[in-house]
Amino acid sequence: MNILAIGDVVGSVGCRFLRAHLPALKKWKSVDMVIANGENSADGNGITPASAEYLFQSGVDVITTGNHTFRRREAYPMFDSCETLLRPANCHASAPGRGVLVYDMGRVQVGVVNLLGVVYMDYAGNPFDTADRLLGQGLPKITLVDMHAEATGEKKSLAYYLDGRVSALFGTHTHVQTADECVLPGGTGYISDLGMTGPIHSVLGVKPQLTIERMRTHMPVRFDLAGDPCQMDCALFAIDEKTGKTISVERIQVK
Questions:
Q1: Strand 109-116 to 100-104 pairing
Q2: pLDDT in tens, 84-124
Q3: Which residue is catalytic, options 68, 148, 173, 175?
Q4: Which three-class secondary structure state does DSSP give residue 33?
């Protein structure tokens, strides 16, 4: 089966671009399931019920999030009520929502785990221990992990730690697509970061002049999103349904 993982969707401009191009990509690549990181899908960062519903209606099956998960309080009830909207599993136990999902596709079930890194990030529980705990509870043969983290070393270490135990691990958060897609020795597909769905001429989606001003002056600056043109960064994991192993990983950029 083919599972498409889409990099951080940035603001309404990224949402619109995804809606415009995802249907054709799904048809072209015979995509069976779509996972997208939507933690920045609302303008001003975070995720709202409106931006989440927009992504679902655009063809996304499961939304994962990250360190901006709880920026918008209006989304808290949706994290509790919507099984296909995930927050990192290693958030504090008091956080709304869930960090793992078993997605029933009829002929096969697919597990999705959302984890948050701890290197250069806000505090969260140990992602290695959290992964062990969740896998110990029993997940489908086909299980994918979104590791939302800053450090590539942390992402790849976790990928090797889980090699052979999950079908794929893909990184999100940095908004820059990496060129290290591969299948690890145990059959786990991997890429350090999927990249971003949003404005091309930007700094992580933000107007460059604003990030430059912030870095030059160290004064508070409101980060407004840049506009068109956009691109959608993603990766396609071809997975053997019988073994749960990844056969191939294809890095994709849609412009």
A1: antiparallel
A2: 999 999 999 899 999 999 999 999 999 999 999 999 988 89
A3: 68
A4: strand
